[in-house]
Amino acid sequence: MNNSKTVGYFSILATVLIWGISFISTKASLDYFNPISLAFWRFFLAVIALYIIKKNKYPKVKMDKEDRKIFFAGGISGVFLYFMFENYGMEYLTASTASILIAVIPVLTMVSETIINKEKISVKKIISVTLSVIGVILIVGFDPQRDITDMLIGSALILLASISWVVYTFLSKPLYKKYTTITITYYQTLIGFVFFGLLMPFNNSNIFNLPLGIYIHVIYLGVLSSAAAYLLFIYALETLEATVCNIFINLIPVVTVSAGIIFLNEKITLLQGLGAVIIIFSILLLTYKKKEPPIREF
After folding, report:
1. Terminal alpha carbon distance of the chain
2. Torsion-angle region of residue 33: left (phi > 0), alpha (psi -120 to 50) or beta?
3. Which of 52, 40, 44, 109 is nearest to 80 (CA)?
4. Backbone angles phi, psi at 52, to 5 degrees
5. Which of 39, 33, 88, 50 has its CA nearest to residue 194?
6. What pLDDT, in 10s, does the model give residues 200-215?
7. What angle do helix axes 35-57 and 181-203 make, rounded to 10 degrees?
8. Per-residue DSSP letters for 191-259?
9. Is 165 exposed, middle or buried (0-12, 13-18, 19+ CB in 10 A)?
């Protein structure tokens, strides 16, 4: 194995760890921030970090006037709506449950592509969708430690977050033929940040005298999860096969569940664990030969 591939494997592993643990940081931070203010301060830091990265790597690349509407729509759906729904959903769910439900996004994307492009549904796709639905039912419906109403509300919000990301995927697809991932992420994060800012007068949280660990969580979300991990992920894509990156990315829920048990004392029932395994298997089945791994900001 050459050095670049070795670094590539370390990069994708670090990406999975960072994005997997991001659910833990979000859940911990929601004890001190409301969902809107957490997103605002997270993306305040992310915009600064992404600007520095973009300025150093792609200083001359700017958003063209004719693409502003697509960038705007992508920033609304992929940053503002996605993270608003996800943050509110995580107030009702454990970090583990939220990460597993979010992992169904590739399946939703596939179903949407099939409907929009009027493609024939293959046996593999049918099996994948069926397994995902079974997995979600096992996770949502079998947690005696949580109120069923909270589970349903939280799951509905996470579903809305997933749908927002699917919409973002289709809206932003033309941009990836013209711009780098960092450029797209910077401008759309900036747009999402502005919209969270518009809601801050109604959702502001006290940011002073908080435990040091909470500040670290927010910095982690803004700088590492929403900025640095993208550099690692892009390098991995450049040095490893797309299939390899896909397999690693699909293991994010495993990291979150493990971290949730260790750091947040979260518990997962046997049936929920079975549901998680079924969902991960369904995604691996669906994306095994997919050439372009789904990129999602965590």
Report:
1. 30
2. beta
3. 40
4. -65, -45
5. 39
6. 998 878 898 999 999 9
7. 150
8. HHHHHHHHHHHHH----SS--HHHHHHHHIIIIIIIIIHHHHHHHHHHHS-HHHHHHHHTTHHHHHHHH
9. buried
Alpha-carbon separation of residue 100 from 97, 188, 210, 285 (angstroms): 5, 25, 29, 16
Contact, 4 vs 64, CB < 8 A? no
Q: What is the pLDDT of residues 56-115, one digit of tens each?
A: 988 888 999 999 999 999 999 999 999 999 999 999 999 988 998 888 887 788 778 778
**0.70 exceeded by pTM:** yes
Cβ–Cβ contacts within 10 Å for residue 192, how many? 27
**CA–CA dist 128, 286 (Å, integer):** 6
The residues spanned by each domain of the chain are 3-287
Cα separation, 87 vs 93, in Å, equals: 10
Q: Please, which residues have CB within 8 angstroms of residue 264's CB and are 6 or more apart in sequence?
A: 24, 27, 28, 94, 95
Contacts of 70 (CB under 8 A, 6+ apart): 171, 172, 174, 175
CA distance 79 to 226: 11
Looking up tokens 């859940």 gives: 27
* Distance separating alpha carbons of residues 28 and 22, to the nearest angstrom: 10
What percent of the chain stands above pLDDT 90?
Answer: 49
Spatial CA neighbour of 268 closest among 101, 52, 39, 116: 101
Cβ(10)–Cβ(18) under 8 Å?
Answer: no
Residue 136: name the closest of 245, 279, 26, 287 by CA: 279
Alpha-carbon distance 24 to 96, whole Å?
8
